[in-house]
Amino acid sequence: MGIDASETEEVPVIGTGRHKMTGSGAKFGREKEDAIAALHSQRNVDEAARAASIGTRALMRWLQIPEFQGSYREARRDAFAQSIA
Q: Is the pLDDT of residue 43 over 80?
């Protein structure tokens, strides 16, 4: 029982420079996923950074990355959609 060719596909690289991310842009490391969750549950960026155990400056930099912004917006839309469902 091997892997079917349809199950394996190359993952495109999104972004350039030090902000390269693989996949659709919605998949990040655990730190970035935790940061997005913290941004939704905390009052401000400082508190979100503290809750995610990262520096405030790092979180501010991540908020400037288009792929991170897209994932953050998508998470906000999902949360809003669940709140009105």
A: yes
